[in-house]
Amino acid sequence: MPETIDYKAVIEDLKARKTKLEQIIAALEDIAGELGEAKVWIGAAPKTIQADTFVGMNIAEAASKYLHISGRPAKNTEGISEALNRGGLNCSLQSVSAILRRNNNNGEGDVIRVGRGLWGLQEWYPGRPRRSNRQSGEEGE
């Protein structure tokens, strides 16, 4: 026996859902506008980098603290350098790159190289060996 479809009922149902979706979208746009951005953090809000977050630390300590604060995914050298400077540690991109590469190659600290110019915490990649330029055959950071 063939089924019949009540298209008027389907259309009314879709219109009701459309109205609800438009209300949800408007509410989310209001929230995003109030925050000044289109991102809303779910769960614990991320810690922010203050002007003195890394004062008194060396590059390796500060990079580790930054990665702990920011969380996954791995960060690139430029992002780490920018964050360290924003947090009160006056350092160059070249210094950050050199220190992170040296420590990684020597097996020091908890910051490891996870890709070309990408750094993460050892605890994020359990069992992953440290990668060095000599081991991977890559040049640069």
CATH first level of the largest domain: which class? Mainly Alpha
Average predicted confidence as pLDDT: 83
Estimated structural class: mainly alpha
Give the strand content. Answer: 5-15%
Order of helices and strands: HHEHHEEH
Q: Biggest sheet, open or closed, and with what strands and sense?
A: 3 strands, antiparallel
Radius of gyration over C-alpha positions, nearest whole angstrom: 24 Å
Structurally, how many domains make up the residues?
2
Number of strands: 3
Number of helices: 5
Please identify which CATH superfamily of the largest domain we are dealing with.
Winged helix-like DNA-binding domain superfamily/Winged helix DNA-binding domain
Question: What is the CA–CA distance across the termini?
Answer: 70 Å
- Binned, the helix content reads 40-55%
Instruction: Based on Cα principal axes, name the global outline.
Output: elongated
Low-confidence stretches: 134-141
Q: CATH topology of the largest domain, what is it called? A: Arc Repressor Mutant, subunit A
CATH architecture of the largest domain: Orthogonal Bundle
What is the strand arrangement across the widest sheet? 1-3-2
Give structural notes.
The chain is mostly helical and 141 residues long. It has two domains: 40 residues, no CATH class; 78 residues, Orthogonal Bundle (Arc Repressor Mutant, subunit A). Helices cover 49% and strands 8% of the residues. The protein contains five helices and three strands. Strand 2 and strand 3 form a beta hairpin. The longest helix is centred in the N-terminal third of the chain and has 29 residues.
